Model the fold of this input.
Amino acid sequence: MAFSFFGGIHPKGNKAYAEHKSVREFPAPDVLIVPLAQHIGAPCVPLVKKGDTVILWISLGPKVETARMPNLLSGSGYMMDTAETILHNNKFYNLEWIPVDSTAPKGRVLSQSVPAGEEIDVTTRIVLEYSTGVAPTEPTDPSDPDLPPMVSKSHVFALPQMGQAYTLRIEHAGEQIFPDTLIQPDQRELTLELLGNGTMYYTLYVNGELYETVTVNFEADE
Done:
């Protein structure tokens, strides 16, 4: 033991004994012994007698309700009010809407952070980008400190492993940054030079269908 101050002690942690052991569920014993005198004072009085059946109620933890994420990008994408109704009907209420300058009609959903068809907790936060209906423009004064600087970033996209060749397209804010291209089964990665700032979302389409949405943080090093 090591004494660090008067009256205080720090016993050794001895974590080495279990640091590489997995956490396992402890089986219920055949015989459970509960001491009735675990404190100062009179012992507890048992409410059961020998031979009585005792039922133990074990918590399963909080109930997790799940639902399947709908495809909000079907066709050219739903409008915000329609998309929100669909999400609410599926009990998804934790939504974050991000406006994006795009030539797509104002209010059209451009991307969703959870791929369609994925089974998730209904409390999961879902990030959706929607069009402002205004074509994106470059900042008039890049030196303006109030404007986030646009930076170039090399990002590696992990490609789907389909077991056969497929067509891949990548979009951001409704605009194609990687056009429909045939991907061979042995190709596992795709490196693209991206231009942006803050956090941006890129949507991958496989054979014309939404596959997943990838988050790219332009402020973090990869």
